[in-house]
Every structure is written in structure tokens, then in C-alpha cells.
Amino acid sequence: xxxxxxxxxxxxxxxxxxxxxxxxxxxxxxxxxxxxxxxxxxxxxxxxxxxxxxxxxxxxxxxxxxxxxxxxxxxxxxxxxxxxxxxxxxxxxxxxxxxxxxxxxxxxxxxxxxxxxxxxxxxxxxxxxxxxxxxxxxxxxxxxxxxxxxxxxxxxxxxxxxxxxxxxxxxxxxxxxxxxxxxxxxxxxxxx
Length: 192
Description:
With about 190 residues, the protein is mostly helical. It has three helices and no strands. The chain has helices spanning about 1-10, 15-60, 65-190.
């Protein structure tokens, strides 16, 4: 039975269904037990009434037939046997009920422990996830800031490269101009 309980518990939803089924069976057992006891009481009352009628008839009649006497005697013995059987069945079922209620109690405690453990682990994981999200947001912000700085630097580098090209072109022109001037001066000096 304990193996059945562990497999039923592993099923999660099946576990609560098993508990519900057991509680329903327990209620059914109690109802059947009460009905048996009521039937027994009614039957006892009927037997007492018959016995009283028998006594009344006996007082009215001087004798009773042996057949009737034996019939009532047999009925009484049968009732006592049936009562003993019912009582034994009731004791057996009560024992089963106590065992089942004990198991349900154990399973409820175990379920509560597992629930508490799950909630604790879930809380820690949620905390870590929130910290992770906060760190990710910080990293995104830093990356955005770095990207802005990089874009500015690229723009600045681009502007400087354009200026350098312009300066190089100017330098080339000035060199060319100086060469030309030097050539012209050299020609003038030769002519003089």
C-alpha cells in the first residue's frame, strides 16, 4: 500500500484524487456502518416485540408448540451469528479506516513540507532572476552609453581624417608651389 501511495503521490494531481477517493470511501463506510447498526437495532426491537407477543400468547394460551419454539430459537441464534459477523466486519473496517486516516495524515504532512520547500526554492530563484534582470538592465545601459561614446569618437575621427586629407592636399600643393618657385628662382639666377 505504501508503494501505491508513493506512486500516487508522484502523480501530483492523482495524489489529491486518491485523498478525495479515500475520504469518500471513509464517509461511505460510516454511512454503511450506521445503516447496519440501525438494521440491527430494528431487528432486535422486532425480536423483543415477538418475544413479548410470545409471552403474552403464552399467558393467554397454556402451551406453545415445540415447532414455534424451535423456530424462534433458530431465528435468535441466526441473529446472534449475524450480529457477531457484523461486529467483526465493523472492527476490521474500523482498523482499515484508522490506517487509511493515518496514511492520509502522513501524506498531508509530507505534501506541506514539499510545498514549503518548493516555495522557498521558488523565492530564491525569483530573487536571483530579479537580480539577473537588474544586472542585464545595467549592462544594457552601459552598452548604450559606450555605443554613444563610440559613435561620437567615430564622428570625431571621421572629421579629423577629412582635415588630415585636406592638410595633406594643401601640403602637396605648397610643396609643388615651392618647387616651382625654387625652379623659377634657379632659372632667374642662372640668367643673371
